[in-house]
Predict the structure.
Amino acid sequence: MMREDVVPACQILNQIIAIGGTTALEAPFSQALFAQSFLEGADKICCHVALDDQGEVAGFQWRGANDALPDNFGDIATYTRREPALKGAGRALFEETSKFAAALGLSAINATIRADNRQGLSYYDKMGFQDYSVAYGVALQDGTPVDRISKRFDLSIGR
């Protein structure tokens, strides 16, 4: 991700947040907060974008450090444009992200997904992630409890 990708990537994320039900993020991002969170954040390991045939951002995948995980792990978050969707964007993003993470010597990638996010759970299953933990009843902003399922991709096994 580069500075010029911030505006379209932020729009993609904010559209996903507005639709609801597929991300733990619930408040829209300003462009400045988006850049700080996904482009410049101290916890960022990498952030890749997928471009469509016109060179427009069709999705992005962030990979970052998380103090709650072992040092050789990292978190992942994937967001792709809903309209028009770009078939294969998520798979292409994960191929780049996993190669980058393996080259850094990381051993695993963690994805934590809302239990009601069937699309996200299916995506990470297709990428080869395995369930390893559940946080039960994590409250949304409105107080609704939603489980969070953590999945792990072991980079030593590979693709």
User: Anything to note?
Assistant: DSSP finds four helices and six strands in the chain.
